Amino acid sequence: MTSTRLPGKVMKPLCGKPMLWHIITRLGYAKQLDKIIIATTDREEDKVIANLAEEMGVVFYCGSSEDVLDRYYQTAKTFNVDTIVRITADCPLIDPVVVDKIITYYQTKKCDYASNTIKPTMPDGLDTEVLSFQTLEKAWKEAKKLSEREHVTPYICNHPESFKVENYAGDVDLSGMRWTVDTQKDFEFVKKVFAELYCATRIFYMEDIIKLLNKAPELLEINKGTARNEGYQQSLLKDK
Question: Closest Cα partner for 135 from 91, 81, 61, 59?
Fold first, then answer.
């Protein structure tokens, strides 16, 4: 709720429901997820997130707002999770089919960590990371830099000598598209997509969004120009 660029974004309404509600609902269609867990903070402002989780019957953990790596580790430990699938709460267009593909890729490669984010080919906003609890625990024990505590997985990607890391690539490079929500312009883009595609009885998928954007390419202009992973870049500056 204390996002610096767009405060309260996870609870902003899309078609009458909070953005986080849509993320949880869409992930419910992923066939390879056993459980959805919300890893939020112990700040007073974030009680609204815990309340939404309770309303939806989703378990949650409240931990550190600054040390997100510790929050993830404590969440996984509390709920005895052996494989973590990390989705961030600014991705209301997350596609459960993409999530399932990357989980399968992780299992096939028998690696420590797999994602579609190392060399992105998918739109920003479909980011999915899969890692073992052992990998998370090693990162939790060894990561020291602020950027590696605040963003959970950079330590893993920065140490290929210690972890087997694999990148999932799509057939077509769509990495120039921005479907995540960090700014008001991002939210306006997502609102337009939901206005066109949302249906209360079923979800829409990546292919549906691509078809919409092919018909209405002007939508891409709404939030054009924002750098990918801007928050992580700011953390790197703090490291220095």
Answer: 81
Check if the beta carbon of residue 170 is closer than 8 Å to that of residue 121: yes
CA angle 14, 19, 23 (to 5 degrees): 120
Cβ-count burial of 189 within 10 angstroms (0-12 exposed, 13-18 middle, 19+ buried)? buried
Q: Are strands 165-167 and 83-86 parallel, antiparallel or unpaired?
A: unpaired
Give how far the C-alpha of residue 12 lies from the chain's centroid of Cα atoms, to the nearest Å. 17
Q: Residue 176 burial (CB < 10 Å; 0-12/13-18/19+)? A: exposed
Give the three-class secondary structure for 114. Answer: strand
Domains of the chain (ranges; CATH) run 9-239 (3.90.550.10)
**CB of 213 closer than 8 Å to CB of 219:** yes
pLDDT digits (tens, 9 = 90+) for 134-187: 999 999 999 999 999 998 999 999 999 999 999 999 999 999 999 999 999 999
The alpha carbon of residue 127 and the mean position of all alpha carbons in its chain are separated, in whole angstroms, by 5
Tokens 């593909």 identify what position? 101
**3-class state of residue 63 by DSSP:** strand
Each residue's pLDDT tens digit, 182-207: 999 999 999 999 999 999 999 999 99
Indicate if the alpha-carbon torsion angle 73, 77, 78, 82 is positive or negative: positive
Average pLDDT over residues 212-223: 97
Please count the residues of the chain.
Answer: 240
The pTM assigned to this predicted structure is 0.93
